[in-house]
Amino acid sequence: MLDDRKTAILGAVIQEYIATAQPVGSTHIAHAPSIQVSSATVRNEMSLLESEGYLVQPHTSAGRIPTDKGYRYYVDNLTSPGRLDKATTQQVGNFFSAAHGRLEEMLHQTSNLLAELTNNAAVVVGPKAEAIPIRSVQIVSLSAAAATVVAVFANGTVENVTIEIDEADDDVRLASASAHVSAGLAGTVLGAVGSLATSGDADVDRLCAASLGGLGQVGTGDHVFTGGVSAVADAFDAVEVVRSVLHTLEQQFVVVSLVSDIVGRGMSVAIGLEHGVEPLSACSVVVAPVVVDGEHLGSVGVLGPTRMNYPQALATVEVVSEQLGHRIEEG
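The chain above was modelled as a monomer; its predicted structure follows.
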């Protein structure tokens, strides 16, 4: 644990670096309102902070910048989720009050909102269909050999999958299968359904089994949406870093695993390599779970440079996750 003076100096360096992205010198810190010591004393303390791994000097003649260890100390000991200003809080409230239609569209727009509010890349992982009760199912003919199975879920999600059918599967048979599969699945979740009771008609049962199998595959997929990815390009000077981060964000499996792992470890902030994804070593991730009826059904988060504004990011992610959970719960 750092003493009060080192803690104050480290906090002042981090806040200045977050604001300017420029190495911070001792003279500037000595003039900070919270620092009541000489430049020489600040210089000596900054040297000690560097030797202890909290700061680093990128160039011999330059000031110092925080390390991941410095940011971690700052997040754990010097910050807490800030409070969004009244206008931003109202903006979030208005957004979710006006959000209607398909869940996918709302999640996509939520990622854009989060990116706009934080000026970082935003990630929204929505609930899997297999965890949400089904409202209705309909099987609609596409051709003599194929039909689409459309499932409407209790929260507004719509999933569809194509199945093979026989030439003899006319609209009457498809309607019978739709009615049977709807009756068997309504009010249940896909993850809990192994098979349907027989209808007494082998052809109808065949169509129902194909529908259930197809929906089971679709239901395991994640709804992942990213917004504000272009902000990443503005956050880093090195083209290689930008390219690496953008390439990683395009890989949905990596993004979902990253967010799920952080939430699963009970963390709200992962700094640098704490999240374990090498291509994102220059980034921090701030996340919050989306809770509906006491269940963790998704997550929201922002990803940006390690010099991100942590109090603001924490506050924004917390409010958006809470509002999104309420909106999903309302259906």
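Residues 163 and 302 are 38 Å apart (CA to CA).
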